[in-house]
Amino acid sequence: MPEDSRTPQDLPSESASGIHDKLPAVSEAMISRFAHDIKSPLSAIGMNLEFALGELQRHPSNDALRGALEDSRLAGAKALRLVADIQDVLRYEAGCLVANRAVVRLDSLVEQVVHSRQAEARTRRLDVSVVGELAPLPVDGEMFERVVASLLEYVFRATRPGGRITFHLRDGGQVQIDLTSDGFPPSPEDRRTLFDREPKGKRGLGLYFCHAAVDAHGGVLAYVEGVGIRLVLAR
What we know:
Blueprint: H1 13-58, H2 63-93, E1 102-104, H3 106-116, H4 118-123, E2 127-131, E3 137-139, H5 141-158, E4 164-170, E5 174-181, H6 188-193, H7 206-216, E6 220-224, E7 228-234
Helix pairs in contact: 1-2, 2-7, 3-5, 5-7
């Protein structure tokens, strides 16, 4: 195998360890460049799809085309979110993930994310609602929007058609957000590893990103038996 094509897994353990030790020092610059490169075309796709959807609103013609364009817009938005998630996970791994806090209405943020997914919820025949209110809290709003979207995406996949998904918001000495569903609960082993770096089963990076983002805020994210997913932040 040519030397240039080898990965850390292909190298002897000492060499792989050395590469791993150096990785945080180079990751930030490389990830930023990668993110910049991939965000530009994805943003262009999103803008063009927005334009096409606007034209369809003014000149209705084809429902199938409208649905395809809407799916493309959502896919582009998800791809951009995933790029940001990868950036944050690698910063977290390197110990340099920082939450850019500003005062945010988390209840409004949750409602906005739920509203943006209502079309998908209708397709899946799911009833999604938000119950309760939260006073303003200093958090990284952009990061938390991605947390809520990733949690909701996971629960969408785990809930049977016709099911109900609810965000329960509670405020007091601490902020508590419970995400409940009448869908399929994770297995006991999955519950223990749900937000781990290398969870059991075929799950993407989304839930580990959620753990990293909540941890960067000094909060706790866990699966609670009989409740569902619970997110807690101190005031």
